[in-house]
Amino acid sequence: MCHPNVVLVEKSVSRDVQECILAKGMTLVYDMKLHRLERIAQCTGSPILLSDALMNQKLKQCDSFHIERFVEEHVAVCEGGKKPRKTLMFIEGCPTCLGCTVSL
Description:
The model has no long low-confidence stretch (mean pLDDT 76). This protein has helices at residues 15-23, 34-44; strands at 6-8, 27-29, 64-71, 85-92. The protein has a two-stranded parallel ribbon. It has a two-stranded antiparallel sheet with strand order 3-4. The chain is globular and about 50 Å long. It is α+β, with helices and mostly antiparallel strands. The protein has 2 helices and 4 strands; from the N terminus they run βαβαββ. β1 (6-8), α1 and β2 (27-29) form a beta-alpha-beta unit. It is 19% helix and 21% strand.
């Protein structure tokens, strides 16, 4: 009903719900810590909703959402000869008065 592009959840999501979200072309980010969800809600101006409280909610929008992986160049090589990687999520285009950085 709300037609989101990105759904962020604190814990896990059943396989059926994951497949439904994917079929609708949405991105699902799960297993997020509550304090991070609270910071993202603060930045975007969107409330944190319970799954049964989605009716008639006004959700906020951002301009873009993307995920990037970075290789940590300054860190020594770990086991297996690979350098550690970090995955960062970017939510951009929120009102500047609400903006902040959330370190994951």
